[in-house]
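Question (not urgent): is this output format expected?
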Amino acid sequence: MENVISFIIIFGSLVFFHEFGHFLFAKRAGIMVREFAIGMGPKIIGIQKGETLYTVRLLPLGGYVRMAGEDFDTVELLPGYRVGLILNPQDEVTKIYLNSNVSNPDVLFLETEEADLNDKLFIKGYDDEGSLVRFSVSRTAVIYEKGQKTLIAPKDRQFDSKPLMGRFLTILAGPVFNFILAFFIFVALGLLNGVPTNEPIITEVQANSPAQAAGIEKGDFVKSSNGVEVNTWNEFTETIQDNAGQTINLEVERDGELVTLQVTPKEMKEAGQKQGQIGVYYTSPVEKNPLKAIAYGAQQTWFWIAKIIELLGMLVTGQFTLDALSGPVGIYKATEEVAQYGIFNLMNWAAVLSINLGIMNLLPLPALDGGRLLFFLFEALRGKPIDRQKEGMVHFVGIMLLMLLMLVVTWNDIQKFFF
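Got this back:
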C-alpha cells in the first residue's frame, strides 16, 4: 500500500503541475477554463469555484484542463427548439433551460427562431402568445440541460479566439512547469542533503591496484594531472579513463604538502570501449549552501534534460527498441524499487520523471502538446490557422496511435515484471 500511495502522490504531483501550467496561462490569456481535472475516468470529487470545476478522478494516470471553445464545448440552439428563459431586471437572459419540464413560474418559454450564444449573444423566438420577441443574453448566462449546468462562453473567452502567442504559451506552459517542478525538487534536495562539492579527493584506494602501487593514499587531494590543473573529480576521472596504459604525472596535496606521483591506468573494457582505471573510490563531501543549492538545481535539471534527449535520439536511431520503453506499469515498478532507498531517492526519481513527462509532451506528435505547438508554428508561417476539422482529424489519429503504443508498452511491462 505504501508503494501504491507513493506512486499516486508522485504521478499526481507531476500531472498537477503540468496541468497547472496550462491552467495558469489560460487564465492569464482570458480563456475560460471549464474544468481542472487530476486523473481520468469517473469523478470522485468535484468542487465548483467560479467558472471552473475542480475534480479528482478515479484513475491517477493523467489529467486535463478543459478550456472553452474546444471540441464539443458549444451549444447551438436550432430553429424550432423550445427553451425556457429566466430574465434579469434588464431583460437579459441569465438562465436557459433546454427542456420544457420546468416548474419555475418566472420561466418564459420560447420556440427558437434564431439564436447566437457565441458572438452576438441573443435569442429570438415566438412566445406562448405567438409574438416574435428578441432578448439579449448575459455574458454570464447559464444553460441547464438534464441536471447539468454550463456557463456560456462568449467568443472572446474561447481558446481559438485568442492571439497566437497567448495560445502558444498556454500549451507550452504545461511541459515548462514540469521542468520548473524538477528544478525545485533538486533545489530542495540540495538544501536538505547538501550539494556535492565534487572535489577531487581520494576517499579509498583499492588493494593491489595501480593507485596503491603508485603510492596514492586515502585523503590525497589531486591538484594537477600532467601539468594541467584539476578542479573536479569528473575532470580527474576523465584524465584517467582517456590515458589507459599511459603514465600520468599527478600532483596531490597531502598533509599540507605537494607530492608528485606517477600512475599508469590499467586498461579495462566497459560497454565495448577501452578505459583506464587506477582503483580509487570517491565519496563526495557535501556543502549546505542555499546559493549552491539553487545552482545545483539548475545543473541537475539541465543534465537530465540533455540525458533524456540523448536517450530519445538513441531510440530514434535504432539503438534502443520498444522493449526499452516503460508505461505506467514500468513506472510503478521503478517507483516501488526506488522507494526502498528512502525519501530523498524518491524525490530525485520524481524530479527525473517530471523532466521526462515534460520532454515527452514536447515531442511534435499529434495529440501531444508538441503536436499542437507544431500546428501553431504552421499557423504563424501561413498567416492563418489550419482548418479545425483537419487538425482535429490529425489529433484523433494521433490519439489512436498513442493508445496503441501505450497498450504495447504496457503489455511489455506486464510480461517483463510478472511473467
